[in-house]
Design brief:
By secondary structure, the protein is mainly alpha-helical. The protein has helices spanning 5-21, 29-44, 51-79, 82-97, 99-114, 118-125, 138-185, 197-220, 224-234, 243-254, 282-313; strands spanning 257-259, 262-264, 267-269, 273-275. It has one domain (5-313). The chain crosses the membrane at residues 55-76, 156-178, 296-313.
Length: 314
């Protein structure tokens, strides 16, 4: 088997495994890691009021939490071979990608929204976004869920596939650990302003290329001209260097308006408007899910064709 084909086949097998089995209901590795992250933060971040001390404590926390697990992934790739290695790689990528889980969370919002059950839609969207769900109307719920699908599609699905294809099992493990640390520590508040800076910067760095590949993928599969225009004009105004291109291109591809003011517990946050076209509705959530799914198919088709072309030419 050609060397280029192995990671592609493993990636496809991982997505199929995720589709058939889904996320573990109990003992999910990332849940256990999240519990460890909480304890590590309590142990190290005792003086958040001291910027230098808090900053270096955050670096130490990232190293303690990531180095051993990435080392285990590296050891598995060095010591295992044949079917045992393929099984470990496939399982690891399937746990990282969670394409089925993304769709399940999105449809848990979109379906009650479509039948007019706003209480259930608000309850469900509160599981996947941090904004004040009780203050959202129908358009607000649809926009929140759609934004979550587009952004998490980039963070969990496409970035995980990218890092596995580029750096194998250690790459995908490091990415998912850093992404989890950023989700838990990357807040701009008094406690995490300095402690979480290392995790946030590493996450920005690791997602820079995957985010732009994701934005291009969304653009190619929707209204390409509008998506590229929104990406170019609107993404720079977004506060995240990676979420901006992804969500602007995704909104443009779907021909819908996302972003804008959003209610949080601390008050209404004024965010730039993303995309152009109609207002989001129940169908927008499903369209965002399908955009991610079709994007994964496009990646696999492109990789297979590129590999076959290279094999024929060289």
């Amino acid at each position: 088997m050609e060397n280029w084909a192995v990671p592609v086949i493993v990636s496809i097998a991982a997505v199929l495994l995720d589709h058939l089995v889904g996320e573990p209901r109990r003992w999910h590795p990332l849940v256990g890691f999240g519990n460890l992250v909480v304890r590590m933060e309590r142990l190290l971040n005792r003086r958040p009021d001291q910027p230098a001390r808090s900053f270096w404590a955050g670096w130490l926390g990232v190293l303690i939490l990531c180095v051993p697990l990435v080392g285990l992934a590296l050891a598995a790739e060095l010591w295992l071979e044949g079917w045992p290695l393929l099984v470990v790689q496939t399982s690891g990528v399937a746990l990282a990608v969670s394409l089925r889980g993304l769709a399940e969370h999105g449809r848990a919002v979109g379906e009650p929204l479509a039948r007019g059950d706003m209480d259930e839609a608000r309850r469900r969207v509160g599981y996947i976004v941090s904004r004040d769900a009780a203050a959202l109307d129908e358009q607000g719920v649809a926009a929140a869920a759609s934004e979550s699908m587009l952004e998490n599609g980039a963070d969990a699905v496409f970035a995980s596939l990218f890092w596995f294809l580029v750096a194998g099992l250690p790459g995908v493990v490091l990415h998912r650990l850093v992404n989890t640390l950023d989700a838990m520590w990357g807040y701009r508040n008094a406690r995490f302003q300095y402690f979480g800076r290392c995790a946030a910067r590493l996450d920005d760095l690791m997602n820079w290329i995957p985010a732009r590949l994701t934005a291009l993928t969304y653009a190619l599969l929707g209204n390409t001209r509008l998506a590229l225009r929104c990406w170019r004009r609107q993404a720079p105004a977004w506060d995240s260097p990676n979420a901006g291109p992804v969500m602007a291109a995704g909104a443009g591809a779907l021909e819908v308006i996302l972003g804008g003011p959003a209610p949080y517990a601390s008050g209404v946050k004024q965010r730039p408007v993303l995309g152009d076209g109609g207002q989001p509705g129940p169908g927008t959530v499903e369209q965002a899910i399908r955009l991610v799914q079709r994007g994964v198919a496009l990646w696999f088709i492109t990789l297979i064709l590129a590999g076959l072309l290279g094999w024929l030419l060289f």
